[in-house]
Write a structure and sequence with these properties.
Layout (H helix, E strand, L loop, with lengths): L1 E3 L6 E8 L2 E10 L2 E8 L2 E8 L18 E6 L15 E6 L1 H4 L12 E14 L4 E6 L8 E6 L5 E8 L3 E6 L5 E11 L9 E6 L8 E4 L8 E6 L5 E5 L5 E6 L5 E7 L8 E3 L3 E6 L5 E5 L8 E6 L5 E8 L3 E6 L5 E7 L1
Antiparallel strand pairs: 1-7, 2-3, 3-4, 4-5, 6-7, 8-13, 8-20, 9-12, 10-13, 11-12, 14-19, 15-18, 16-19, 17-18, 21-26, 22-25, 23-26, 24-25
Length: 341
């Protein structure tokens, strides 16, 4: 059984590989009900399948050639799925053909999942070319989330379907661009999570080839550094942080960012709370814009996962009780905005 990560939004597309089948899954709400389209290896398996709790989505599975089946599972009752509870109450799961044949498939382990993400892989990536490329993540599941921390000039961003059960799918502005890619998977309930131990407002005093250092105040080597751009340009980690400083570089003087720094856990793996919501945004102009985040209170922080060339950065302030405030370098720039409660 495989849990396929989905977001608590009313319309989304998921790209994944299921038992060597290249799948595109569209999930959308219509008239307050959830529907699913499934395409496997370029062939439509089902269109407009109405989602019910624990009912196979591919009703033609016995003869359409799709191996296995998809189910929505309610972990708190027997109700049909509602998008606001995706990945917290209702989970989308894939059963192999062998598991489908069981008289009573066991979904009990899904109830142990929670809004906790485990840092399951850290990948040091160098782009082999400009444009699309892929990197094996080495996990036995589909990652829920990736974070890309630049470590050189240039840009690396995620493709629209940024992960399946084998690879992370990325793109780069040029050959030889480097980044650290943090790969997260869904974790069990009850685990201790890490929050940023320090939040630093960084303004670059120099430009390449010069680097600069910023004291982080942790007293230990950080386990994770997140860089949220707050201006045009790029700030990246020029060298690994030590127990005193972050070592950074910037595309020019005066580039700004909010940098979140995490301590390593006292014991056990590194876990974080999952985003409360994820917003897909496409800029309509090279201007400031705002997006409602839908939370009942102001977020604690946001992160930006780029899904196209160009850049989107946070305004200052980046959010309030209603909206996230952003700006883009051009029209048509695409990103996922990770919003944390």
């Amino acid at each position: 059984m495989l849990v396929i990560p989905i977001q608590p939004v009313p319309s989304q597309q998921v790209l994944c590989v299921l038992d060597n089948q290249n799948c595109q899954i569209a999930i959308y709400q219509k008239n307050c009900k959830i529907y699913v389209d499934l395409n496997s290896n370029g062939v439509n398996m089902c269109i407009g399948a109405l989602a019910h709790n624990a009912v196979p989505l591919d009703s033609c599975n016995s003869y359409d050639g799709f191996s296995g089946n998809l189910y929505f599972i309610d972990t708190q009752g027997l109700d049909d799925p509602q998008f606001a509870g995706f990945n917290s109450r209702w989970y989308l799961v894939y059963l192999t053909a062998e598991e489908v044949l069981l008289t009573a498939p066991d979904f009990s382990s899904i109830a142990e999942l929670s809004g906790v993400l485990a840092l399951s892989a850290t990948l040091e990536v160098t782009s082999p070319n400009a444009g699309n490329f892929e990197v094996a993540h080495g996990l036995d599941t589909v990652p829920f989330l990736i974070e890309i921390v630049p470590t050189s000039a240039g840009a690396i961003w995620g493709q629209a379907g940024f992960a399946d059960d084998t690879n992370i799918y990325l793109a780069a502005s040029d050959v030889g661009v480097t980044a650290t890619v943090y790969v997260y998977t869904m974790a069990a309930a009850g685990l201790t999570t890490q929050a940023p131990a320090a939040t630093l407002l960084v303004d670059s005093p120099s430009q390449p080839p010069d680097t600069f250092s910023v004291a982080h105040g942790l007293g230990v080597v950080p386990a994770l550094v997140e860089i949220l751009p707050t201006s045009p340009g790029t700030i990246w980690e020029a060298a690994a942080a030590d127990s005193t400083n972050l070592h950074l570089a910037a595309s020019s003087a005066g580039v700004t960012a909010t940098v979140s720094v995490y301590k390593p856990p006292s014991e056990g793996p590194f876990n974080i709370e999952a985003p409360a919501t994820t917003l897909g945004v496409t800029s309509v102009a090279a201007l400031p814009f705002s997006v409602p985040h839908g939370l009942s209170a102001a977020p604690s922080r946001i992160e930006i996962l780029m899904i196209s060339a160009g850049s989107i950065w946070a305004q200052t302030p980046a959010f309030d009780g209603a909206n996230v405030y952003l700006q883009a370098s051009d029209v048509g720039v695409i990103a996922k905005i990770l919003v944390y409660a």
